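Q: What structure does this chain adopt?
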Amino acid sequence: MTDRHYDIIIIGTGAGGGTLAHRLAPSGKNILILERGTFLPREKANWNPIEVQKQDRYFNAETWRDKDNEDLKPATGYWVGGNTKFYGGALFRAKEREFEAIEHKGGISPAWCLKYADFEPYYTQAERLYHVHGQRGLDPTEAWTTGDYAYPAISHEPRIQELSDDLQAQGFHPFYLPMAIKLNEAQQFLSGCIRCETCDGYPCLLHAKADAEVMTVRPAIEYPNVTLLTDAKVLRLHTSPTGREITGVETEIAGAVMTFSSDLVVVACGAINSAALLLRSSNDQHPHGLANSSDLVGRNFMKHNCGVIVAVMSTPNPTVFAKTLAVNDFYWGEPDFPYPMGQIQLSGKVNREMLANEVPLTIDADISAETAAARSVDWWLMAEDLPDPDNRVHLKEDSISLEYTENNMQAFDRLVHRWIGVLKSLDPDPNSRFYSQNFPLRWVAHQCGTCRFGTDPQTSVLDPDCRTHDLDNLYVVDGSFFPSNIGSNPTLTIIANALRVGEILLDRLK
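A:
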């Protein structure tokens, strides 16, 4: 296969790479997809909370370093489908305002070189491709759209419906989470999803989660012109003597090193590993790493300020599939705090085994894990962290190092405090308990920003088409391109951008 030349090589199969492969597959062009992982095994452990949440069964075995040179075990997996194998499936559009410069309490979130209108048609395509269920008109912050969701909102179970009604009675605007899932509630006998409790944060044993493997990679490789190689770790990219184009993709497969060539190369390894690959591929023409004349590759790393609230309330919560509700009433702040605060959404339901093993947090010793789990309502909160060139991915002795210092935390801490206050108002019982914990640096599921796009080669790594300014045939299509970190889950924007760039590449390949 080393002698074969391809039209395009895609490195990575997550939300960016998998979606791009799906978009390009019908073109008839010869496409090679390289994935360092394998297909995630279907086994009972897929649904085992201790294996998945405590033992990190499906995370990679690498050791990274933090800014203090301490060991960092990343909560990320290398599989076909990337981290979408474990995502909760909440797929939000960015708000129209988020493509403009926004003042935060902690600084400025910069404007994008493209605007919401440039992404809107691709958001629509992405929602259809990934089976996003939702309902327009309930979220007071949502952007304009050209149509409704193709799939109906996922219904609340009784306890969650009760909470939704209580929040509405207090003047809030709860809405149905836009969820990517293969669910058919009207005809359950045709549904892939069974609304189980092991969805958010777990791989789906039934392949009913609308992840990148199921929705894009598997359909793409049905085309005879598409080749997928798994267990294929790309070591570095080689350039021509001029340094203006990629001429080889050096890859380790089963212990052997092979080099592939193509007209176009797309890096889609996730914001951290994409930056690391470009830095690792330094040569005489690019001594500081490929596409790094701006010294911005790896810089401006963002991952969201996020955490969990476990509310142990007086009312039992027998909900199984909990992740159906969100609240954006504090998204842009509140009257005495005119800065963005962030988003609140339900997370997957914690259970006795998780709490007994201190996942996702530690509860008081005087309450049993079984009691807490039976009464808990579990929330995921997130807010923007702002781009900072000193927050960066770089290499130390060829290992990944994340130099990261939290910022804009006042807004996030206010959101946590404010939401606990709301929950207490819903359940003033003195025996109710409210636990919160911020997620540490190792949780990098929302990674973005390390190869920002823009029109100026001195202030960006990629042009508006996500082609590197420095190399003519090299593109980056994952969360790396974000100039700022939107206040909600980034995955739908990554997918929409991959569809957008797919059209650009098809035009170029003609």
